[in-house]
Amino acid sequence: MNRRYRKTIIAGNWKMNMTPSQAKALIEELKPLVSKVKWCEMVLCVPYVDIPTAVKAAKGSKIAIGAENMHFEPKGAYTGEVSADMLKECGVKYVIIGHSERRQYFAETDETVNKKVKVALENGFRPIVCVGESLDEREQDIWSEIVRKQVKCAMQGVSVDDVKKVVIAYEPIWAIGTGKTATADQANEVCGAIRDCLRELYGARAARAITIQYGGSMNAKNAAELLSKPDVDGGLIGGASLKPNDFFAIIEAANQ
Predict the structure, then answer these.
(1) Which of 24, 49, 73, 161 is 20 to 30 A removed from 16 (C-alpha atoms)?
(2) Which positions in this protein are listed as binding substrate (predicted)?
């Protein structure tokens, strides 16, 4: 982490878990734990049906609420989708864009990710843009080309002023939900490569201000080591964000 230039952000991604009543109970349990956190921004990205309950439960706390996805059109015949205006009225501050599960199961492409990033910024959200390589791409040693391409495509048409509002989450696909984790050095190497790519696109000052998270099975045990690396500025947390004590342990590691 390097707080001199950028914010540390720990964000939970609940995926398809938690009913509204369960969401309220988890947030109520988490709030007193995080009440004295100073150096770390905390976000919970929750399923659509949980958003109103989560926003209400988190009110007055240091926890921001985000969405797990958003359509790029403002309205229309897109059954099952949710627009930026809908999220804005619910009180959402962040939105995850381009998660590998969205790319894999719901045919998201670099093009649609870019559209969503621009719409998110236009509507005042902080997009958490996910990038990462598969196991084959890692083993073939082409991870750098893959991740750089995803970053460049996602940021196409985004201004230097707006890019500072973007959070990048490096999520190696081979480490999501598998129990495998990139080593701290591997995570820092890729996060550093992402920052180098952003530097080429936007210049050194903008690049050093952008928060880059690591998101491949970060947990209470490995968080401190991962977050000790200079280019790892936080985490996008899956399973551990569903357990208040585990999530808080990661937040504590980020708050040091």
Answers:
(1) 73
(2) 13-15, 177, 217, 238-239
